[in-house]
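hey m, so remember when u said the tokens were messed up on ur end? i reran from scratch. heres the input so u can diff it against urs
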Amino acid sequence: MGHGSADIESLQILKDFRVAILKFENLCRNALVGVDAEIKRTQDWIGSQIPNLERQSRKDEEALNRAVSELKEAQWRATYAGKASYIDERKAVDRAKRRKEETEGKLAAARRWRVTMDQSIGKMSAPCNILAILLDHLTPGAVARLDQMLDSLEDYFRTPSPEPP
């Protein structure tokens, strides 16, 4: 790296640049914290949905079994006891089947989302970790280098120039 002359008109430019670097570091760190919090929140939500949907699936299965049992009883009554219709019971079985299928679909989707999210987090975590490491290692050095440059330039500007002979 060659050392040539620099046309420095104002130290304020370097001071502003130092502030901008620190502001950029702060924004990056806040973004990393925000991403981490959002990931955790979403993982917790998906994780809580799966047990809830599993419980709901069992309840739906029980409701379907009750509805099927009531339908069979109504069919028996229609055949042997002379009751004319079991349409209401048939509708109840259809509703119970739809609810069960809907819950099973939601459960399958939640499980897929969990897998997809884990894969996405794996892909995203490496660049985020690299950024955090770079911020940890490069920012203090860059700020220290700027401070050193500012100190040297301030000393240079304070030193009176020699009188020409």
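this time it looks ok to me. The helical segments are 11-81, 87-158. if urs says something different then somethings off w ur setup not the seq
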